[in-house]
Amino acid sequence: MRSYLEEVDFEKIKQRFDAFWKKEIIDRPLISIKAPRRRQKKRNFPVPDSPEKRWTDMEYILNKIELYFENTLFLGDAIPFYMPDIGPDSFTAYLGGDLIFKDENTSWIKPFVGDLSEYNPVLSRNNKWWRFMDTLVDTVCEEAKGSFLVGTPDMHGGADSLAAARGASKLSLDVYDKPEEVKRVMRRLTGIYYEVFNWYYEKTSQVQEGSITWLPAYSRGKYAALANDFSGLVSSKMFEELFLYEIKEFSEYLENSIYHLDGPCALGNLDSLLAIDTLDGIQWVPGAGAKPMREWTGVCSKVLDSGKRLQISCQPDEVEFLLSKLKHGGLFLSTYCRTEKKAYELLKRVKI
Prior knowledge:
- The protein is of the alpha/beta class.
- It has 14 helices and eleven strands.
- It has a single domain, classed as TIM Barrel, CATH 3.20.20.
- Helix content is 42%, strand content 15%.
- It has a seven-stranded mixed beta sheet with strand order 2-1-11-10-9-8-7. A two-stranded parallel sheet has the order 3-6. A two-stranded antiparallel ribbon has the order 4-5.
- A hairpin with a 2-residue loop joins strand 4 (99-103) and strand 5.
């Protein structure tokens, strides 16, 4: 593949992200703008006949990667990168879960833990999905050299892994009936998280400096998007008692970290998260069907006023409004324009 990194000012982008982590500004806030290229290229290549094959056929994956880059415009601080992936439950698949592929964009784990007291998660390097991802990450890294960045695969460990393995409704009862067992399993999952993250980072660091993931901030060191989507189903007190320590541990270990806060039901945990000194930032996602981002400036300002960084996605017509209402230091906006022309027009308007 040709070098897509050469088509963006990657050195300048890295400098802006350096400033972002320091809550400083070089010339403007971070803004990632992507759009379809005006001239879309088409490539004819075989499409596997099942969802699982479309997730796992190497030739098909590489063809899709190249077609994505050929047809996507990266402006502002958007970075050409690809994240090798088999879905957010890949972490739990490494522990023995069976992945189910609904379509080319959706996969999940069928719950397999009957009694929490008997669950002792163990990572096996002979696991089918571990071996597949070992090959996939290596293959993508080889293609990426000098062309694009490789994103750290999505890792839903901890409570989200436990919810996938046990089933969210059953885990919701466990946190009341068996809190000590939840704590025990969480400790085991936390230890496994480090092993999996370091495995990914060792591979990607052989072909690039720094890291990026599905939450597309760039760091020159170890960076990850932290998450606990299950936390929206429990009280803030229970979140603090059972799950907050994991976020503290990971944020202390990583050089940079942003927590994915998903939906109004999770807002009760925001104060606890903002109190973690080593957690760098928050990604606020209003959730499906919620009010648009322009209606959430109170939450956004609270994050920025606390000294944390803020990453949000918004519609193109919200960008200028949000820039007028929010502090710029530590702010990172992402948007997607429908056309190349509109993307260039937006970039011109936000060059403050």
